[in-house]
User: What shape does this take?
Amino acid sequence: MSEARGGYEPFDCAPALRLEAHERVTSLRFEGISERLDRIEGLIERLERRIWLAVYGVAAAVMADVVMSVAQAAP
Assistant: This one.
């Protein structure tokens, strides 16, 4: 079939190159979004650990206060 066209080799046309560039840009954007989401998930996990630590600290303080008041009430 290339002989029917006069022996020319196939070449990339502008719309195909534009589509390929668009696909590369889209791929890079998704990779960036994925990396940002991974960082955000890590930050959320660290925040969750800190919140639970605060909750346990408050619970321990309340329990210590209850124990101290019971210890002072019973001689």
